[in-house]
Amino acid sequence: MKLKCVNCAETYPPIMIYSCNKCDGILEVFYEKKDLNDLNKEHLEMNKVNTMWRYSDRLSIGDDDNIISLYEGGTPLHFSKRYKSELNFFKGELYFKDETVNPTGSFKDRLVSVAISKAKEFGYNKIVCASSGNAGASAAAYAAKSGIDAVILAPQSTPKEKVIQILAYGATVLLVKGHYSNSYKLAKELSERHNLCNVSTTYLNPYGTDALKTVAFELNNQLKGEVPDYIFIPIGSGPLLKGVYQGYNELVQSLGNIGATMPKLIGVQAEGCAPIVSAFENNKEVVTAWGESNTIASGISDPLIGYEKDGTYTLKLIRDSKGSAVSVTDEEIKKAMRDLSQFEGIFAEPTGAASLAGFRKLCEKGAINSSSRVACLITGHGFKDMKIYQEMENGLHYINDISDLNAFL
Ligand SMILES: *Cc1c(COP(=O)(O)O)cnc(C)c1O
Ligand SMILES: [Zn+2]
């Protein structure tokens, strides 16, 4: 195993380094082919059999004793019936990969579990994480589990449920003025000046982002090797999309052409913050930063200021997969949230439902063949941001006594 620059292909031994020394490019964990052999560890502790650690042979932690786990991954795949029958124009298969059931309520747990295990392995006793809320909650929880101090930087606009969750795990929280990129910049500063391990969940931490490929391994297993035609993924800078790409790529490599192929990956952003979609639609090679971000989808409200290259890399992977990028309005996200909870019993935060909103939008545009196999990643739990649900029309009534009850009946 080594680290490899996605830009100039320079390699490094597995040390804690956040970008290529030569060209500042993104680093990823690179496994020699011999590392890709068996998918299942026989000697895995019982509790971890149904987690992402069943793929620990393909994760970067050398010694199982260094794994900091709250039992992340191994998330369910729902087969949609009611929502799909609502979409009478869609005859195919629709699945929801439910990442809301991760230990702290989002897929970020996969990334952070490996990033903090690695921090521990490298001997750090403090981590820093810039976050729109979910990565911070993960970082705080795994730091607590491992006895490492955590400093979390998040925008002042972060939903209060997320801030409370981070504080509950005992982390120090710095609420930073302005958009996510400000928090990102300050976290980098703190990491460099005081030697804190940076577990921010952009492409900074190669070990962390590498863990997200387990989403693809699980999907492939749950679908018994049938590859979805499309996978819809909410994207900020895009490590989750990269993870899915990487996972299928490793499956293609190890299974050869008898096995997996690459699904078309669809990156979904909010109309109020859509730097990658904008570059995609304008046929650009390079992503430029977004100005004012304005959306209820806090988890993907990332203008990419100062790390536009992350967006450019994600865009490249979308195109390599022959996928596309689509933006959705806040109204479309709200509808997807309501539909997911009321037709499928899945309670998602706005960002978590954005994938479904993107699927619906492309369906209605006629861009999705109606007999396709489609998976939407539902990335974050509804408990994390409940304001929008509170504002929705609902079945709430106040009852003072029996006469109110009679009137209601
Ligand atoms: C972080 C996050 C995303 C975006 O993921 P990236 O891969 O970091 O761009 C999507 N959904 C939720 C709920 C998130 O917390
Ligand atoms: Zn490089």
Write the layout of secondary structure elements.
Blueprint: E1 2-5, E2 11-12, E3 27-30, E4 77-79, H1 82-86, E5 93-98, H2 108-121, E6 126-130, H3 134-146, E7 149-155, H4 160-168, E8 172-176, H5 180-194, E9 197-198, H6 206-210, H7 214-222, E10 230-234, H8 239-255, E11 264-270, H9 275-281, H10 308-320, E12 324-328, H11 330-344, H12 350-364, E13 373-378, H13 387-391, H14 402-408
Parallel strand pairs: 5-13, 6-7, 6-9, 7-8, 10-11, 10-13, 11-12
Antiparallel strand pairs: 1-2, 1-3, 4-5
The chain binds pyridoxal-5'-phosphate and zinc ion.
What are its keywords?
binds zinc ion; alpha/beta; binds pyridoxal-5'-phosphate; 409 residues; 4-stranded parallel sheet; single chain; Rossmann fold; 14 helices; 13 strands
Describe this entry's structure for a reader:
By secondary structure, the chain is α/β, with parallel strands linked by helices. It has a domain at 77-105 and 209-391: Rossmann fold. Helix content is 36%, strand content 15%. The chain has 14 helices and 13 strands. The chain has helices spanning 82-86, 108-121, 134-146, 160-168, 180-194, 206-210, 214-222, 239-255, 275-281, 308-320, 330-344, 350-364, 387-391, 402-408; strands at residues 2-5, 11-12, 27-30, 77-79, 93-98, 126-130, 149-155, 172-176, 197-198, 230-234, 264-270, 324-328, 373-378. A six-stranded mixed beta sheet has the order 4-5-13-10-11-12, with helices on both faces. Strands 8-7-6-9 form a four-stranded parallel beta sheet, with helices on both faces. Helix 9 crosses helix 10 (308-320). The mean pLDDT is 94. The structure holds pyridoxal-5'-phosphate (PLP) and zinc ion. Residues 106, 108, 134, 201, 234-240, 299-300, 349, 351-352, 379-380 line the site of pyridoxal-5'-phosphate. Pyridoxal-5'-phosphate binds next to helix 8 and helix 12.
